[in-house]
Structure formats: structure tokens, C-alpha cells
Amino acid sequence: MVAITTSAENRVLLQNISWQTFKTMLAEMGSDRNSRLAYDNGTVEIMTPQMPHENSNRVIEGFVGVLCEELDWEIRRAGSLTLTRDDLQRGAEPDSSYYIQNEALVRDKENIDIAIDPPPDLVLEVEYSRSAINKLRLYAAMGVPEFWRYNGSVLRVYTLAGGQYSEVETSPTFAPVSVKEIPRFIQEAKKNGEIATTRVFRVWVQEKISTKKQ
């Protein structure tokens, strides 16, 4: 067992774990917890978020909601939805996940099985300390179209093509808006408050959309 502790998150790494053991761990730990698990190639990572990690996650979630409202996109927030594929023997619980383009396909579903349902259109991982599991490979295998990674200062955006992710400057989902500027609003929220900053963010998004239409 390997443990990494920072002010933002705790990570515990377990090696040589079978897929069936991982599935048993998920069942026994249940859903009433704040830790998030990931599995790939015999390795289990258990991540427990601390305040900086979870606050960044929630603030970004609020901004994603604003983006969808202003672009007239419907959304279904799936949070840390447990994503498992028995055929791939891979599993993950992202910090946040969203159905946007495929929202209508899962709108009324209480249980989502990505073996038969579409995976989330967008997945976010907050990683103040780098995960030992290759999340790019993990989510690419699951077919997640867009992946965001935030490390506390930089937001990186990846899109899926040909089974692999490539880093891009512009989110295809929110093309009129430079979402890579989100970190500066996260920092503003620490000084001015989340509600006040969200109002400023909304005006900024509206201006970007208006400029694109001209």
C-alpha cells in the first residue's frame, strides 16, 4: 500500500487487486462516502478529497451549469457516478461528470450502466496531486468524449479522437467560451465569494457568446 497526503487530497494505492475484488470493494463501501475509487490493470486508487480539492470541484460545477444555461444546453449532473466496464476491467468515480449532448438519453434513468448507456459527455478530475492511474487512458477506453483536468492552477481540456485524447485549447462543448480561463474565476471566488464571482462569470460568458454571434 502506498499513501500520499496533501492539503488538498489523500490518495491510497493498492496493488495486485483483482477486478472482482474491486467490484466487491465498491459494493461493501457503498455510495454513502466521500472517497472516490479508480481501477486499472490491477491497481486500485482511493482518493479522499480535502477542502481545496472539493471546493474547486464544486465551483467548477457551478460554472458548468452557467455555461449550459447561457448556451441553452440541457444538462444532467451525474457527480461522482461510478463508471465500470466489466469487459474492459476498468472503473472510475470522477470528481464530476455531466450529460449534455446525450442528456435526453439518460434524463429519466435512475441507474446508468455505461456498458449499454452512453458515458458522460464531460468528466472532470481535480488533481492537486497526480493520480497514479492514467486517467487519460482510463476515460478514453470508456469513450468519454471530453475530459477536464484541474491541478489547482491550470485547467487542461482533452477531446477524444481515434480512441485517444488530445489536449485542445477550446472545449468543443462550450466552443464560444475559453473555459481554460476558469481558474482565474476560482481564484476570484476565494477573495470575493462564490455567488459574487458566479455573477461576474455569467456576465463574462454572455459577453463571449455575444461576441461570437457578431
TrEMBL record:
<dbReference type="InterPro" id="IPR011335">
    <property type="entry name" value="Restrct_endonuc-II-like"/>
</dbReference>
<keyword id="KW-0255">Endonuclease</keyword>
<dbReference type="InterPro" id="IPR012296">
    <property type="entry name" value="Nuclease_put_TT1808"/>
</dbReference>
<keyword id="KW-0540">Nuclease</keyword>
<dbReference type="Pfam" id="PF05685">
    <property type="entry name" value="Uma2"/>
</dbReference>
<protein>
    <submittedName>
        <fullName>Uma2 family endonuclease</fullName>
    </submittedName>
</protein>
<dbReference type="InterPro" id="IPR008538">
    <property type="entry name" value="Uma2"/>
</dbReference>
<keyword id="KW-0378">Hydrolase</keyword>
<dbReference type="GO" id="GO:0004519">
    <property type="term" value="F:endonuclease activity"/>
</dbReference>
<feature type="domain" description="Putative restriction endonuclease">
    <location>
        <begin position="20"/>
        <end position="179"/>
    </location>
</feature>
